[in-house]
Design brief:
InterPro entries: Haem_Oase-like_multi-hlx. The chain has two helices and no strands. The protein is flat and about 55 Å long. The mean pLDDT is 83. The protein has one domain.
Length: 69
C-alpha cells in the first residue's frame, strides 16, 4: 500500500479521537490557550508519575512477599 494511502487510512481511523482531543484541549490560538494546554499536560504527567510510583511500590511489595513466602 502506498504511504499516502496509509496516511489517509490512519487519519480516517483516528479522526474521532482527534476530534475528542481537540474538544477537550480547546483552541491553541492564543498564549492563554497554550498555557491551559501545558497545564493539562503537566497535570496528566504528574498523575501518571504518581501511578507509576504506586505500581512500583506494589510490585516491590509483591516481590518481598514472594521471596519470604
Amino acid at each position: 500500500m502506498p504511504p499516502s494511502n496509509r496516511r489517509h487510512q490512519l487519519r480516517n481511523h483516528t479522526a474521532n479521537s482527534h476530534a475528542a482531543l481537540d474538544e477537550t484541549v480547546g483552541l491553541l490560538d492564543s498564549l492563554a490557550g497554550y498555557r491551559r494546554y501545558l497545564r493539562g499536560v503537566a497535570a496528566a504527567e504528574a498523575a501518571f508519575a504518581a501511578a507509576r510510583g504506586a505500581f512500583a511500590e506494589l510490585d516491590a511489595g509483591a516481590r518481598d512477599v514472594a521471596v519470604r513466602g
